[in-house]
């Protein structure tokens, strides 16, 4: 077999498309790693909608770990004081099933739980939940995305009534203002960043604002870097909202038709004057005003954030503060605009949906 197979990279939240093919092909040299071990060939899938054939170093070398220090067969030990010993799949599965039945019969089904991952496919999630809920009779199934993404989930649900980012990867090519906060996209989601950076270089009118206390590779590529004091994200976001309202960059028709409780929000942000925000965030008033002006004058604003926002005691409030900027300016529900949460794994949302 020499034909390539299409698959997905399991690492970050982009889920880049890959094409993999066997090490050996008729008339071609065998593909090997630096130790001479034959490994599968990997290349980007040009037809994939998010990555468009691009691949980072992690995706490009995804086949190399398959032959290095991998568990190739089941290993069992009866106590922590013993060494692992190799067993057959039949014996391993029988031990697992016996242990599950022992716990279920002696302590009840709710003594059993399963913890999944955002690297599961949606079909994997579905079968796992069938096992736990339909077969064993317990609701104790969860996935790590409910922890790492819980702030974004709650923010979306509280603002929109649904856990669903209203954006897509094509928006990266259409935005004229990218507002990145709490994300070092260049290193953590490199294909997203490469696609966005390429767009910004081609469209010289497009702006990139990066909010990060550190000067990361992402910040180095920004038109404006706001190195705020850690923990002052909400102050900054409400300060931008204050200026947008002061300068009249609000979509009153969208607010009237599609939102609720704007007067209460306006009452809150009136206290976040540029002087107060600049002092709290430890930034220049001019930079704060520039960020607000970029947002207000742009036709398509796309915000992107990740764990720097979500992993916080105020994570949900920060997410809602980002979304509020989109709602007050009508920057949502159109190409190139909206609040875009960058997940840590390619199917983080699949676990919540299943």
What would you note in describing this structure?
The radius of gyration is 24 Å and the shape is globular. It has helices spanning 57-60, 89-107, 122-136, 145-148, 150-160, 185-188, 190-202, 217-220, 233-246, 252-258, 262-269, 274-281, 285-297, 307-310, 315-329, 348-353, and strands at residues 5-8, 17-21, 41-44, 75-76, 85-86, 114-116, 141-143, 177-181, 207-211, 224-226, 301-305, 338-341. The protein folds into 3 domains: 1-70, Single Sheet (N-terminal domain of TfIIb), CATH 2.20.25; 75-145, no CATH class; 151-352, Dimethylsulfoxide Reductase, domain 2, CATH 3.40.228. With 354 residues, it is α/β, with parallel strands linked by helices.
Described by the principal axes of the CA atoms, the overall outline is globular
| Low-confidence region ranges | none
Helix content: 40-55%
Strand order of the largest sheet: 10-9-8-11-12
CATH class of the largest domain: Alpha Beta
Mean of pLDDT: 93
Distance between the termini: 34 Å
Note the run of SSEs as H and E: EEEHEEHEHEHHEHHEHEHHHHHEHHEH
Number of helices: 16
The major beta sheet can be summarized as:
5 strands, parallel
Instruction: Note the beta-strand portion.
Output: 5-15%
Number of domains: 3
CATH topology of the largest domain: Dimethylsulfoxide Reductase, domain 2
Q: What is the radius of gyration computed over CA atoms, rounded to a whole number of angstroms? A: 24 Å
Give the second-level CATH assignment, the architecture of the largest domain: 3-Layer(aba) Sandwich
Structural class: alpha/beta
Beta strands, count = 12
Q: CATH superfamily of the largest domain, please?
A: Dimethylsulfoxide Reductase, domain 2
